Amino acid sequence: MSDLAIFGFGEGGWGLALLEGAAMTLLVSACGLMIGAAIGGLVAWARLSGKRLAGAVGQAYAALFRGLPELLIVYFVYFGTSTLLTETALFFGHEGFVGVPAFAAGALAVGVISGAYQAEVFRAAYLAISRGELEAAISVGMNRALMARRIILPQVMRFALPGLGNLWQVALKDSSLISVTGLAELMRVSQVGAGSTHRPFAFYLGGAVLYLVMTVLTMRVFDIAEERATRGVRRAAV
Amino acid sequence: MSAETPALTVAGMRKRFGALEVLKGISLTANDGDVISILGSSGSGKSTFLRCINLLETPDEGVVTVAGETIKMRSRRGGRSEPADRRQVDRIRSELGMVFQSFNLWSHLTVLENLIEAPVHVQKRPRAECVDEARALLAKVGIADKWSAYPAHLSGGQQQRAAIARALAMRPKVMLFDEPTSALDPELVGEVLRVMRALAEEGRTMLVVTHEMGFARDVSTRVMFLDQGLVEAEGSPDELFGGSTSERFRQFISKERG
Amino acid sequence: MDIDFITKTFIRLLGALPLTLSVWFLSVVLGALVAAGVTWMRVSGVRPLELFARAYVMVFRGTPLLIQLFIVYYGLASLPAVRASVFWPFLRDAFNCAVLSLALCTAGYQAEIFRGALLAVPPGQVEAARACGMSGLLMFRRVIFPIALRHALPPYSTEMISMIKATALVSLVTLWDVMSVALKIRNDTLITYLPLILAGAIYFVVNYVIGVAFLALERRLSPHLRPRPS
């Protein structure tokens, strides 16, 4: 088949499979990012709490997962959770290896890594909120919960957007490492296609193009979100 | 420089930024020992004029001559011009000492290193000689003990005095001051003006763009008032401040007085 | 789990560290050279060069390193044109492919760091240099580069650490780095946690040392950023 035809959607064409792989990549990255947001929020809260133990644990978490190779973490999460599940099943009498679904392990791995960086983004975003605005909120009688919901959270999200945009790009790229678990995301599909058709150059290049398209499109989404979130904010002339 | 050759002449300087003509033909002659204050409201082109002299901005027209040497220019497409000889420009710049409104000391070097940087690397003078001269200059401007400090650790007035010393370290033929006190807190302005006055009394040739009327009136030998890109009034301080014929200048003075 | 096994595993992993470090070092240095070129193109003022530089950065930062690595290692090797070319003796070796691919990738990130550092040089200080008669190479050497360097160090340290982590990917192109050895031990002994934990510890320590070294370098080069001496 011609080079271009293998990317087609007809019989023997890999176009559909690649697009499905891309969709899987987007899905697992998004899930990973959300898990990361939850973890990052928790770690940021721990570090900002002022309590020494919580702060130390938070810092240790961030330091640990920023100092380890992402591939190692993917393997660790995948094998580790599988082993955990197998032993739990054993405890309940089920023999044999129980594998964690690759999607779950992959999203968790991406999330665990992303969380370490998101914590810093959230922390910086919180610290960027003007103390004066918080004082104003207190002096009109807002309680802590109300202030958190109406003043702090919206502003944290606004300041965190650029950093999160960056981390989304990182999550997209980290998701390619999940291919080692066999999950049919874009990297894996490219790999399978390359092996099956003996055309590694075409498939890996095609995969790269798809990643690039995803990156550019989703960054545009983030840019638009940033513009909308920062309307009304006076910014220094760039 | 002989007594006949002026230290600096500028003839017919024009400069436009896009559609806006900022300098519409300005000429000036500065002899040795002249202290010329250049006054004008914002947008009158005075800073642009100064920056065109040492080619930080490139004038569209105009001939600049420093101590008898004319800066060679050539024309480019679009009616613009550019210096014809980069080496000549660098050399002439090293003969003109410029003091900026925002000091612009090099942040990664100590005060002393700031002073010897250009003498050693541009003028290629022996390091020991430059260091000795630098220390003497620092003493002259009153910050001898700050030689090993970094600019970030000095007050604004100290930084500007260091910047003046840095310009002096080049042994310039003419000194150019671009609003040297405009960025300073009021209480620090005096220490810088005192140094500039001392330089004037030494007989240095100075061009000073400033808003300090006191300096213009008491220290300078000539005053030039720019308005909308042209020389609106020019003469000795007595002539201008004692009741100038120029209506615009009188308006300008009364506004500056507040 | 006996101490003997732990020690043996640890030593085996350490044995692979030189490969990891050499891949890291070579790709970082090569990447820096490429990045310098890309940055030069970016600030050259020549539009086609600028566009190429921007495209380079976008491509190498917008795609996963793993796919870049596979393009070089598997992809290029499959092209008849490449096999017949003068580059083939170089490209048939996995180590070379790995270094090349990692270098091209880090060059994209390093180019952005260099660009940011150049932008951070206060224009007033550049003007002061020009006003003294400095220009061209002299001004770059004495004013622009020193100031930009100090702005580049913190993000550069992060990138150095990222590159150590990136070397783990070479385990997927048949090189025996720390990651590969850890996986082999796991496959042979079916002990999951220990080899990975020990490998992780090694990577962590290496990254820690790099971080500390850069911090010390930053401190040495920035006496002007420290608080005023009393």
Please describe the topology of this protein.
The complex is a heterotrimer of chains A (238), B (258) and C (230).
Chain A: H1 15-48, H2 52-67, H3 70-91, H4 102-127, H5 131-139, H6 144-174, H7 186-197, H8 200-229
Helix pairs in contact in A: 1-2, 1-4, 1-6, 1-7, 1-8, 2-4, 3-4, 4-6, 5-6, 6-8, 7-8
Chain B: E1 8-17, E2 20-30, E3 35-39, H1 46-53, E4 61-66, E5 69-70, E6 73-75, E7 81-83, H2 86-93, E8 96-99, H3 111-121, H4 127-141, H5 156-168, E9 174-178, H6 186-202, E10 206-209, H7 213-218, E11 222-227, E12 230-235, H8 237-241, H9 247-257
Parallel strand pairs in B: 3-10, 3-11, 8-9, 9-10
Antiparallel strand pairs in B: 1-2, 1-4, 4-5, 6-7, 11-12
Chain C: H1 3-42, H2 47-62, H3 65-78, H4 80-84, H5 88-91, H6 94-119, H7 123-131, H8 136-166, H9 178-189, H10 193-221
Helix pairs in contact in C: 1-2, 1-6, 1-8, 1-9, 1-10, 2-6, 3-6, 6-8, 8-10, 9-10
Note the main sheet of chain A.
none
Shape of chain A: flat
Number of helices of chain C: 10
Supply the helix-strand structural class of chain C: mainly alpha
**CATH level 3 topology of chain C:** MetI-like fold
Describe the structure.
The complex is a heterotrimer of chains A (238), B (258) and C (230). With 238 residues, chain A is mainly alpha-helical. Chain A is built from 8 helices and no strands. Chain A has a domain at 31-183: Orthogonal Bundle (MetI-like fold). Chain A has helices at residues 15-48, 52-67, 70-91, 102-127, 131-139, 144-174, 186-197, 200-229. In chain B, strand 9 (174-178), helix 6 (186-202) and strand 10 form a beta-alpha-beta unit. Chain C has 230 residues and is mostly helical. Chain C is 81% helix and 0% strand. Chain C is flat and about 70 Å long. Chains in contact: A-C, B-C. Chain A binds chain C through residues 64, 66-72, 75-76, 79-80, 83, 169, 172-177, 179-180, 187, 190-191, 194, 198-201, 204-205, 207-208, 211-212, 215-216, and chain C through 58-59, 61-68, 70-71, 74-79, 161, 164-169, 171-172, 179, 182-183, 186, 192-193, 196, 199-200, 203-204, 207-208.
Summarize the structure.
The complex is a heterotrimer of chains A (238), B (258) and C (230). With 258 residues, chain B is an alpha/beta fold.
